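re: that chain from earlier
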Amino acid sequence: MLRFCFRRPFHKKVIDSKEGGEKKAGERSNLFWWTINGFSTIANRGADTYYSRSFTAFGFNWKLRLGLVLEEDGEKYVCLYLLNDDAASKGSEIKAIYRLFIYDQLHGEHIQKEGEDYFHSKSLDGPCFKVALNKFDSSKSGLLVNDRCVFGAQVLQAFAISKSDKEGIHESWSLNKDLTPRKHTWAFKDVSKSNVVLQSKAFAAGGYNWYISLYPNLAIYKDDLGVFLTMHDATSLASNTGVYVEFSLCLLDLDNAKHRKCTAKALFSSATSLGLGWRKFLSWKEVQDPSRGFLRNDICIVEASVVVLGVNTIA
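^ sequence. v structure.
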């Protein structure tokens, strides 16, 4: 594993295989920084996976994935992956030269991994940079300071389609330590008679107000029951701010206790003012099935469980 300090520029030639040209010495792509405050939240939750927002390098969209793995030797590792957003969606193949690194906050250096890989529709996991979790607990390493870690990536590739004029893109995450779910149950009345979206009373969770939205066999979701979690006043969030949430929505079966429940993690922002959830949560036929207890006296009862994992900002 190499150590490298980005305070000095790279002086490395990269051949542009598409245009047949040669890059100028020292020419670089943008650095992407991903700061996570409250790293102990990830370490304590174990198998959870976290994704950064997308960043652009040479005309392609990229993101980082972070997670923990337990190897056969019983050692836990922090795994940082580089993912490409274009290869899977477009069925294309992208060759990239890249660097993944973790910033040593005490020494002003990075531990890093360099590589060259092909990204295509079947390489969804991407290359991995693996570091033992116990190195983060070492007071000498500087990888974890005040429960904060700084990860990063730089994409240097032979296919120089375009280059951003910005000096860098910075994403910062602040993860919550209190991950106690907040639950709210609401009885929706006259469900089968309604031709409009039904909404519950607002409830608080993680410092924000939420409500449940019910779409009972409406024209836009014909023959289905749609259930969504909506953030109250989501449009008031800054355009560079997102709220990362783990939530579940459960339609109660009052007769058999065979409830219908769906769980997801999602980023709520000003662009998700209509809510996030499932447009085909359950078929309308199943909702009305008399052998099931989903609809009694034309009432549906939905329970929401919400955990605000943290907030991220782009600068």
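The helical segments are 40-45, 85-90, 284-288.
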